[in-house]
Write a structure and sequence with these properties.
GO molecular function, one term: oxidoreductase activity
InterPro entries: Cys_rich_dom (IPR004017)
Order of helices and strands: EHHEHHEHHEHEHHEHHEHEH
Organism: Chitinophaga solisilvae
Distance between the termini: 22 Å
Protein name: (Fe-S)-binding protein
Strand content: 15-25%
GO cellular component, one term: cytosol
Radius of gyration: 17 Å
Shape: globular
Strand order of the largest sheet: 2-1-3-4
Helix content: 40-55%
Largest sheet: 4 strands, parallel
């Protein structure tokens, strides 16, 4: 099975090890993994800030870069959800309509691809400790992803999975929201970290590094011992 990687900009620039771990997992499952080095951003930051014309320019390049019949897999529910749910609006009545339709059909968030396409839950991973899962808004609300990541984590040897209070509540990042409304954003982040530590977890795990980056900033500032981990990093642990 051929798999094209879509690596979001912030993963490429700040958390490349997660992308490599995703490749590690996919190759273990027999996928032929490919990466188009011409890829850039999906356009979500510009869209969320109200710059639809600028977003459309970036998204047009994205559609061309991922004009393929292969599966496309990304370590981000946020970016996946944006392409699936908003590209139709961006390219309504345009010549790119059919290419966008194909792209939306082929694009999957990483855990969704594992559970819904490959039908795999046990990767043979090992991580000792207690973990809790944060439902990222992009994954949960834009892609409908909830049970899949939990099924994957339940199969990780040595990891006890505990639900935190309000696991579905936003962490407060929201892209530019965290800049424009910093006090509210930090208050939401504090609540999320408190709920995670209150579960007794050693690891705060999610599908989206944007959430984890935001929460890790609060954790580092306030000296909490909990560690954030993308689920790809968890699934690549111990083997």
């Amino acid at each position: 099975m051929n798999v094209q990687l879509f690596i979001p900009c912030f993963v490429d620039q700040l958390f490349p090890e997660t992308a490599f771990n995703m490749v590690k997992v996919l190759e273990k499952l027999g996928c032929n993994v490919m990466y188009n080095t011409e890829q850039t951003c999906c356009g979500q930051p510009a869209f969320n800030a109200g710059y639809q014309d600028e977003c459309r320019s970036v998204a047009t390049k994205f559609v061309k870069d991922f004009k393929t019949f292969d599966y496309i897999v990304a370590p981000s529910g946020s970016c996946t959800g944006f392409v699936r749910n908003y590209y139709n609006k961006l390219f309504d009545n345009s010549a790119a309509h059919n290419d966008v339709k194909l792209l939306r059909k082929n694009l999957y968030e990483f855990t969704e691809f594992l559970t819904d396409v490959l039908h795999v839950t046990d990767l043979g991973a090992t991580l000792n400790g207690v973990g809790t899962y944060h439902d990222a808004c992009g994954a949960l609300r834009e892609c409908g992803i909830k049970e899949g990541p939990r099924k994957l984590l339940e199969k990780v040897k040595g990891l006890e999975l505990r639900e935190m209070n309000d696991s579905e509540v936003c962490c407060g990042f929201g892209g530019t929201f965290s800049v424009k409304f910093e006090p509210i954003s930090m208050g939401m982040g504090e609540q999320k970290v408190n709920n995670a530590t209150g579960s007794g977890a050693d690891y705060l795990i999610s599908t989206d590094l944007s959430c984890l980056m935001h929460l890790d900033g609060y954790i580092r500032k306030h000296g909490s011992n909990i560690k954030v981990m993308h689920i790809a990093d968890v699934l690549a642990s111990g083997w």
